[in-house]
Amino acid sequence: WQVWAIYMLLAANLSEQQALKQACPSCNDAQLCNCSAMGLDFIPPGLTAKITMLNLAHNRIKHIRSQDLQQAVNLRALLLQSNKISSIDEGSFQSLAKLELLDLSNNSLAHLSPVWFEHLFSLQHLHLQGNFYRDLGESSPFSGLRNLSSLRLGNPRFSVIRQGNFESMEFVNQLWIDGGNLSQYEQGSLKLIKQINHMIINLRNSDIFSEIVRDLLHSVTWLEVREIILAVETKSLVQNSTRPFRMQKLTCKDAFFTDQSISRLLVLLKEITSLRELEAIDCVLEGKGLWDTKEITRSGQSFVETISIINLMIQNFYLFFDLEGMESQINKLKRLTIESSKVFMVPCKLARHFSSLLYLDFNDNLLVNNRLDETICKGAWPSLQTLNLSQNSLRSLKQTAKYISRLPKLNNLDISQNNFGEIPDACDWPKNLTYLNLSSTQIPKVTACIPQTLEVLDISANNLKEFGLQLPHLKELYLTKNQLKTLPGAAPIPNVAVMSVRRNKLNSFSKEEFEGAQVGAVHLSVMECHRSLVVSLICILVFLVILILVAVGYKYHAVWYLRMTWAWLQAKRKPKRAPPKDICYDAFVSYSENDSNWVENVMVQELEQACPPFRLCLHKRDFVPGKWIVDNIIDSIEKSHKTLFVLSEHFVQSEWCKYELDFSHFRLFDENNDAAILVLLEPIQSKTIPKRFCKLRKIMNTKTYLEWPLGEEQQQMFWENLKRALKS
C-alpha cells in the first residue's frame, strides 16, 4: 500500500507538471514563468517551489482558489493584472511569505479583504487599482503589511476614504490613489501615515483636495494631483497645523485652472512654508492673466524656489497679460522652466525682477529675434547662469549672441534646434561662457564667432566639412553627424579630453593630426587601424557565416520546405472543386493581422449578423489547433464557397498572407471562375503585389473589385455589393 500511495503521488505530480507545461510552456523548469495572454481561465496546476516570478496577466481568470499557489512558496513576484478576478479564497496567498510584488490591478474585485494579505510579510509593492470596489471597508486591509513600499489603489467607482483605512502604515515610498470620483473623505484618514515620499492622486473634487492637503502637510514630501478642476478655495490649507511641515513639492497634472482659482491658490500655498517647488504639466488655464496681484502681494513673500510649467494650454495665449504687479513675488525664484507653452516674450520690467534666478529653460516655445531684445533687455536676469533657448524660432545667430551678452554671469547656453543657417565672422558673448550647444542649427562652418572661453562645445548635426578653430580652454568637443573628412588639428585644441566624431565621413588618420597631444582614451575602430587585416578577417567571417547558414538551414528549414512542397503536390492532385456537401463556409477570409480590427469588429459583425447570416472562416477562430498551418490554409480554402482577400499595404507585406496566396493561387485563378472576391481596404497599386502572383495582378487590372469607402452613405452600398458577391 505504501508503494501504491507513492506511485499515485508521483503520478499525480507528473500529471500536474504535464498540465502546467501544456498550459504554459515557459514554466518548464524555469524560475521565471511567463503565462501572460494565453487565454487561461484558471491558474495552471503544477506550480512548484522553483518558480520565483509568475506572470498570469491578460488572461480570463475569474477565481483564485486556496490550493492554486500553495506549492509556490518561493514566489517573489505575482502578476495577475488585467484578468476577470472577482473572488479570492481566504488562504490563497497564505504560503507566499516571500512575495514582494503582487499586482491585482484591472480586475473585477468588488471588495478588499484583510485576510488576503495577512501572511504576505515580505510584500513591498501592491497594485489594486482598476477594480470595482467602492471603498476599503471600515478598517485597514493593509495593517499587516509592515514592509509595504508602494501602494496603488482606486478606480472610477472608488468614492469613500474612511478613518482607519491606512492604520498601521507608518512609511510608504509611493502612494497612488485613483480617486477621480471620490466624493467622501473622512478628515484625518491619510494623517495616520507618518511618511510618504511621493503621493499621486487623481482627484476632481476641489474641496477634498484641500482636506487631503491639510492631512498630508506633515507626512508627504512630494504631492502630485491629477485631473483636478480647481475651484476658488476660501479656507486656509494649513488651518491650525503646527510647523514644521514636510511638503516640499506640489505637482498638478492634467489640471484645469481659471484666473481666479490660480490667484487664490498662489496665496494659500504661501502658508505651506516648507514648499520649495511647483510643477504644472499638461494643464489648461482659462483666462488672460487677470490675476489678483494685489491680494497676492499682500499675502507676503513666497518660499518657492523652483517653478516648472510644461505644455500649458492657454487658448488665447496671444491675449495673455504681462502679469504686471507680480514683480515682488519672483525675486527669490532660483529655477524657472516654461517648456512647450507658446511663450513668445517676457516683458523687460518683469524680467528685471528675477534677481535671484540661476536657471532658465524656455525650450520649445515661440521666441523670435525681434522679441528677444525685450525678453533679455539690459538689467534682466542679472544672476542667470544657465539658459536654454533650444527649439524656438530664432534665425539670427549674431542678434541672439548680442542679446545674450547682456547676461554677465551666464556660463551655460543651449540654443540648439534653431534654424540659424548662417554664422557671422564675429559675435558678442558673455565673458564667462564655458558651455555652448549649437547642435542642429544648420550652420555650414565654424568661425571666430565661437567664443574662446568655451570648455564644452556641441556642434553636432550640422553641415560642417572641417573644424579649425583655436579654442585653448576646450575640454569636450562634440562633432557627431557632420561631413568631416579629417580630424580637427590637435594644436588649436590642446586641452581636449573628450571628442565625439561619430557619423562623419572620416576615412583615415595621420600622425600630424595627433602631433604634440597626449591621447588618453581614443576609441578608433579596427578598420581605421588595420585595414588589410580587417579585409582578410571579413572574408573569413563571410565564409564562416555562409557555412553556418547552410548548416542551420539544413537542420531547421529543410523539413519545412519538404513538407511545404508535399502539401503543394497533394493540393494539386485534389479535384478542382470540393463536393457541395463538403462546403462548410460561405467564404474564407485572408487578411493581415494589422487589419484585424476592421475585419473582426466591422466586417465579421456585418456579415455574420446579417439575415440570413454568412458563415466566415477566420484563421484565429476556425483553424484546427495542432494541425499544420499549411494544411489548415488548404482545407479552409477548399471548404469555402468563396475566398475573400482583404487587400492593403499590410497584406502584401505579410509573410502568411503570401503563403495563403501561394496555396490559393492555382485553386482560384487557374480555374477561371469567380471564387475570389477582392476587397481593397485602402488604395493599393497592383505593382506592389508580388510578381509571382501574375494572375492576381492581372485580375486587379481587369476585374471589378470592391473598395472600402470612408463615407457612411457609400458604406451601405459596399455591404450590399459584398453580400451579392458572396451569394453568387
Please summarize what this structure is.
The protein has 728 residues and is an alpha/beta fold. The chain has 18 helices and 31 strands.
Commentary on this structure:
Helix 7 links the parallel strand 20 (359-361) and strand 21. The strands form five sheets. The protein has a 20-stranded parallel β-sheet, covered by helices on one side. It has a five-stranded parallel β-sheet with strand order 28-27-29-30-31, with helices on both faces. The chain is built from 18 helices and 31 strands. The chain is globular, with a radius of gyration of 35 Å. The longest helix is centred in the C-terminal third of the chain and has 26 residues, at 531-556. By secondary structure, it is of the alpha/beta class. Among the domains are: 24-193, Ribonuclease Inhibitor (Leucine-rich repeat, LRR (right-handed beta-alpha superhelix), Alpha-Beta Horseshoe), CATH 3.80.10; 585-727, Rossmann fold. Helix 14 packs parallel to helix 16. The termini are far apart. Belongs to the Toll-like receptor family. Disulfide bonds join 27-33, 348-377, 427-449.
